[in-house]
Design brief:
Blueprint: H1 2-8, H2 10-29, H3 43-72, H4 76-104, H5 113-147, H6 150-153, H7 158-186
Organism: Halogranum amylolyticum
InterPro entries: DUF420 (IPR007352)
Protein name: Putative membrane protein
Length: 187
């Protein structure tokens, strides 16, 4: 019965989940979530988060690409497994990122002003924009996929929106790794 209700309200659920998710993200980034509301992890854990998240992002790029490859071959169950793995990696990334942001704030760019203005900021802006745009698209295709049998998915916009979501997701994860390299390796 609950699945049927969810199935009939995919757009509304997408809006609700997106709203909650973006409120958490922007709440953490803008400092609306007080750091003392969460238990403080050791400094070594906080310092490891960007590096762990770079690995998580890289693995997610691989699982998204594998998911795309599997669906092109008609291997629906393997596609589903890869996309659910990608979602789990995204959630892991986001929880770690938001925790670190809440506890430490944002990381300042330490490179030259010209690189900051013409490389770092545009890359970061596109990464953030794509990440924000991906959230409702991912919720939508996930809700479609989890509330319908596979045969019925072909009658929905899952394939069309899923292609866009996967592409934007890949670019966002890749640009996130570029931002990571600029912040933690090059400068």
């Amino acid at each position: 019965m609950e699945l049927q209700r969810a199935r009939n309200h995919v757009p509304a659920l997408t809006v609700a989940l997106t709203t909650v998710s973006l409120a958490l993200v922007f709440g953490a980034i803008l400092g609306a979530i007080p750091a003392n509301s969460l238990p403080r992890a050791p400094e070594s854990f906080l310092n490891a988060i960007p590096h762990v998240n770079a690995v998580v992002s890289t693995v997610a790029i691989g699982t998204i690409l594998a998911g795309v490859r599997f669906i092109r071959r008609g291997e629906v169950e393997r596609h589903r497994a890869m996309m659910l793995a990608s979602l789990a990696l995204f959630v892991t990334f986001l929880v770690l990122y938001l925790y670190r942001i809440t506890m430490e704030g944002t990381t300042e760019f330490g490179g030259p002003e010209t690189i900051y203005r013409f490389v770092y900021l545009p890359t970061l802006a596109v990464h953030i924009l794509l990440a924000v745009v991906c959230i409702p698209l991912l919720y939508y295709v996930l809700l479609l996929a989890t509330t319908r049998p596979v045969a019925e998915l072909y009658e929905t916009s899952h394939k069309r929106i899923g292609r866009v979501a996967a592409t934007l997701w890949l670019v966002s994860f890749t640009l996130g790794n570029v931002v990571y390299a600029l912040l933690y390796w090059l400068y």
